[in-house]
Every structure is written in structure tokens, then in C-alpha cells.
Amino acid sequence: MNDILFAAEFAKELEAEVPSTLKCLERIPLELSGWKPHEKSMEFGYLALLVAEIPLWITHIIKKSEIDFATFQHYKPTSTRDMVNHFKQNVAEAKETLLSVKDGELGELFYLKANGQVLFSSSKKENVESTINHMVHHRGQLTVYMRLNDIAVPSIYGPSADDKSFTTDSRGAKQP
């Protein structure tokens, strides 16, 4: 598959994940930002920000050819709405970047760095390809954090226990 076709298809796949991700991010209260389920876990606010910023990685991968942990500037949201708008902006930029890809561009190398030291490198295509999986993985973590904080978990690929459009029968099985 050539780079232009791949990028266009990837933009569609990214767009398909946006509604579910928005439903999660819209429910995250920033006052729980410092909460974490375990001392080794990420803080709730950082995890939500990570989910909101992963689409930005696509832009960095393609346009800048690198991300350095030491210099990557994380957004500092002041409200849930601010976080949601940041996510929407990152998705819009990622889609615009994907739809402007030229053939051959995604074969170029991308570098992940820490203080200028290369930790990892591979083609831009390989890195772009893994970003949606990465976002979905962390969105899944986010739903666990939501559940542990009694925040209603939205329907993502099907109903959740909090989805009121489904009920359970006497055996506990979901019924439409």
C-alpha cells in the first residue's frame, strides 16, 4: 500500500476512535488528576492527557521525525473542556498531516529520544501505525480509572455496565 493510501485509511481509522475517546475524556474531572490506583500507576490526569496527546504524536512523527522526552511540551489543561478541546485540536492536526502525506514520506526514519539520546528508531509508517493501538490501550486504562472512581464508563465498542439502553435479565445477561 502506498503512503498516500495508507495515510488516508489511517485518518479514517483515527476518526473512528474519536467519539469513544471523547466520551471518556469528557467525564474526567481534573480535581482527580493526582489520583492513581497504585503507587506504580500513572496519575489519572497524566493518563487522560496522554490519551488526549497521542494524536499529536502522529503530527510529530511525520513532520518533525522525532519526539524527545526531554523537550516534548505537554499541554496543561485548566478544565475538562480544555482537555477535550486539546484532544480535538490534536486529532484535527493529525488528520490534516495524514492527508498531506506524500508517497515515500512514511519510509523515512522516526527517532524516539531522551535528552538527545536515540532510544528507538524505525520508519514513520511503523510508528504512525502503532499510535491508534497505543491510544486505545491507554483509553482502556482510563476506563478502569473511571470505574474505580465511580465515573460512568461510556459505551465504546458495545454497551458498558453504565449504559442505560441495556438491561440485565434474571441471570445478569445483558438484554437490549
UniProtKB/TrEMBL annotation:
A family per Pfam: DinB
Record has Metal-binding as a keyword: yes
Protein's UniProt keywords contain DNA-binding: no
Positions contributing to a divalent metal cation binding: 134, 138
One GO MF term attached to the UniProt entry: metal ion binding
Domain of life (superkingdom): Bacteria
Keyword annotations from UniProtKB, A to Z: Metal-binding
Family indicated by similarity: Belongs to the DinB family.
Protein's name in the database: Damage-inducible protein DinB
Taxonomic lineage of the native organism: Bacteria, Pseudomonadati, Bacteroidota, Sphingobacteriia, Sphingobacteriales
